[in-house]
Design brief:
Layout lengths: L15 H15 L1 H15 L1 H8 L14 H11 L4 E6 L8 E6 L5 E7 L4 E7 L3 H11 L4 H25 L3 H5 L8 H15 L1 H22 L24 H11 L4 E6 L8 E6 L11 E5 L4 E6 L6 H14 L4 H29 L7 H25 L8 E7 L3 E13 L4 E9 L5 E8 L2 E6 L7 E8 L8 E8 L4 E7 L4
Antiparallel strand pairs: 1-2, 1-5, 2-3, 3-4, 5-6, 6-7, 7-8, 9-10, 10-11, 11-14, 12-13, 12-15, 15-16
C-alpha cells in the first residue's frame, strides 16, 4: 500500500550570509532618496569653492605678491565702501583666489568684496550666498536649525556603516571581485560587478566619512551639553567705548607674526563689540587642521597680544575637532585631494544608485516601500526650510518693526528675538527698543541688551519658560553701525553673546 501522505517541500531557512545581504539591500533600497541627497550635496561641497571660482570672475587671482600688504587692502576696502562695516579680511582657499572682505551695509545686508592682492584694488562684489555656502549648509544641516538637521544627516553614517559591513561580509573573494568587470554577461552582471568593485576600492573613503560624521555628532552632543570642543576665545578687559571695526590690519598681522614665529596669516577677524579681541588666523606647520586652529588674539586698541593659540597645544579633543573638516572634505591637500575626494564621492553616489537598481531588478513588487515613502516628508521639510534660508540671505541682518530674527547662540540652540523700534521723539531722535525673548526650552538665567556704550535693559526670568520683555532708550549716534549686543547667561553657567543689526527706519 502506497503512502497517501505527500510531504510538502521544506522552506530552507535563510543563511547568516543571506540575512546580511537582505539587510544590505534594505538599507540602500529604502534610504536611497535621503542618502543620495546627503552624498550628492557633500560631493559638490568638496569642490564648491572651485565652482564659485568658475562662476565669479572677481574671485580669480592673477598672481600672488611675495609680501601681502594687509594695510593697503584694508584702505582699498574703506575707500570703496566707506559707509559699510568691515568684519573680516581673508585669503582665498588657494593661491588662485583673490582676497575677500566680509562687509555689512548700514541696513544690515552682508556681502563680499574681492581684492586683487597684487594691485590692492577692489575687483568686484558678490552676495554672501555662494555655491560653497549653499551646499555646505544643505549638506550639513539640510537648511534646518542645527539641532534638527545635523543629527538627521549624521544618522546616514550609521546606514553607511551598516551597508559597508554587510556588503563586505557578503563578498567571498575580495581580490577577484575588486578586479572583475564582466561586460559580456549582460547589463545586470556588469552593473553588479561595478557595484562590488567600486565598493571595495572605496573602503578607505567610506571609513573616513563614517568616522568624521560620528565626530560631528559627538561635537553636536558636546555643544548641546555645554561641553564645547573648540578652545575658548579670550576677550579684553573693556566694557565701554567705540567698537574698533577698523583696527589697523597691518599692525594686527605684524603683532601676530611677532608673537608666533613661523606663522603665516591668512585671515583677520575684526572686533564687533568692545570686549572682543581681534583675531588673526593662519597656518603653521600642520596642513591637516583648519586655519582657526592657529590664531592670535589681539587687543585692537593697542595691538598688544592677548593670547596665542597653536594647534599643537590645544589638546587632543580640540585638535581632532579642527582635523575633522579638512579630512571630511579633503581640503587638507589643496586641489589634488579635493579632486580625489570628489571622485570617490561620485563613486559613493553611483554605488547607491546601482544598488537600488540591482535590488529593483531582483524584487518582483515594484511599488514603493513604506520606508521609501517615509523619505518624502523629510525631503518636503528640506524644501520648506529652504525658503527662510534663502530669505535670510536676501536681507541678512535687517530688523524692522515687529520683525522676528533668529540668532544662533551657544549650544547650537536658537532664540527668537523680536526687535521693535518706535519713534518716541522725532526732534531728539530717541527710539524705544523692545526686546522680547520667548524662553521656550532654553534655561536662561539672565540677559542684557547693549547698544554701543549703553545698557538698554536687563532681565531675569522669574519662571523658566515664561516670556520676558524690557524696553530702553538710546541715541542713534551712540550705536556703532546700528549694532546691538544680546548677552545671555544660561542655567549651566555658560555665557553667550550675539550681535545683531537693526535696520534704519
Amino acid at each position: 500500500m502506497k503512502n497517501a501522505y505527500k510531504s510538502q517541500p521544506s522552506v530552507r531557512a535563510p543563511t547568516p550570509r543571506r540575512k546580511l545581504f537582505d539587510l544590505h539591500s534594505w538599507c540602500g533600497f529604502n534610504l536611497c532618496a535621503f542618502m543620495c541627497l546627503v552624498v550628492f550635496t557633500g560631493t559638490i561641497a568638496v569642490i564648491s569653492d572651485e565652482i564659485d571660482w568658475l562662476i565669479h570672475p572677481e574671485m580669480r587671482a592673477h598672481g600672488q605678491p611675495e609680501n601681502i600688504d594687509w594695510g593697503a587692502m584694508q584702505a582699498a576696502v574703506h575707500e570703496f565702501a566707506d559707509q559699510d562695516t568691515l568684519m573680516s579680511l581673508s585669503a582665498g582657499e588657494e593661491g588662485y583666489f583673490n582676497y575677500r572682505a566680509t562687509m555689512f551695509k548700514p541696513s544690515g545686508t552682508r556681502y563680499f568684496l574681492y581684492i586683487d592682492p597684487v594691485k590692492n584694488e577692489i575687483v568686484g562684489t558678490s552676495s554672501a550666498l555662494t555655491v560653497q555656502r549653499f551646499f555646505r549648509d544643505l549638506h550639513r544641516y539640510l537648511f534646518m536649525p542645527s539641532y534638527l538637521g545635523l543629527p538627521l544627516v549624521t544618522t546616514m553614517a550609521v546606514a553607511l556603516l551598516v551597508s559597508l559591513y554587510t556588503g563586505l561580509k557578503t563578498v567571498r573573494n575580495w581580490k577577484t571581485v575588486a578586479l572583475r568587470l564582466r561586460f559580456n554577461r549582460g547589463i545586470r552582471v556588469a552593473v553588479g560587478d561595478f557595484h562590488k568593485a567600486s565598493g571595495l576600492w572605496g573602503i578607505w573613503f567610506f571609513l573616513i566619512i563614517i568616522v568624521t560624521s560620528f565626530w560631528y555628532f559627538a561635537e553636536f552632543v558636546g555643544a548641546v551639553t555645554a561641553n564645547h570642543f573648540e578652545p575658548s576665545r579670550p576677550g579684553i578687559e573693556r566694557t565701554s567705548g567705540p567698537v574698533l571695526h577698523d583696527a589697523d590690519a597691518a599692525q594686527l598681522v605684524q603683532a601676530a607674526i611677532t608673537a608666533m614665529p613661523g606663522f603665516h596669516p591668512t585671515s583677520i577677524q575684526f572686533a564687533v563689540r568692545p570686549t572682543q579681541a581681534a583675531t588673526v588666523l593662519g597656518r603653521l606647520n600642520d596642513p591637516l587642521v583648519r586655519q582657526r586652529a592657529n590664531r592670535v588674539f589681539i587687543n585692537p586698541l593697542d595691538a598688544s597680544v592677548v593670547h596665542s593659540q597653536r594647534s599643537a597645544e590645544i589638546g587632543w579633543v580640540a585638535y581632532l575637532n579642527e582635523l575633522a573638516d579638512p579630512i571630511h572634505f579633503g581640503s587638507f591637500g589643496s586641489l589634488v585631494t579635493k579632486l580625489i575626494w570628489f571622485t570617490f564621492g561620485v563613486s559613493m553616489l553611483t554605488l547607491t544608485l546601482t544598488g537600488v537598481w540591482l535590488t529593483w531588478r531582483r524584487v518582483k513588487d515594484r511599488t514603493p516601500t513604506t520606508a521609501q515613502w517615509a523619505n518624502l516628508p523629510l525631503l518636503v521639510l528640506v524644501c520648506a526650510f529652504a525658503v527662510p534660508y534663502l530669505e535670510r540671505y536676501k536681507d541678512t541682518r535687517v530688523f524692522h518693526n515687529s520683525e522676528t530674527a533668529t540668532a544662533e547662540l551657544i549650544g547650537n540652540v536658537t532664540l527668537n528675538l523680536i526687535l521693535e523700534t518706535t519713534p518716541s521723539n522725532e526732534f531728539t531722535g530717541h527710539y524705544t527698543l523692545n526686546f522680547r525673548a520667548p524662553e521656550g526650552r532654553l534655561n536662561i538665567r539672565e540677559a542684557a541688551l547693549h547698544a554701543g556704550r549703553t545698557e538698554l535693559g536687563r532681565f531675569t526670568p522669574s519662571i523658566l519658560g515664561s516670556t520676558v520683555s524690557f524696553s530702553g532708550f538710546f541715541e542713534p549716534e551712540d550705536v556703532a553701525g546700528n549694532i546691538f549686543h544680546i548677552q545671555t547667561l544660561f542655567e549651566a553657567g555658560k555665557f553667550s553673546e550675539v550681535s545683531v543689526l537693526l535696520g534704519a527706519q
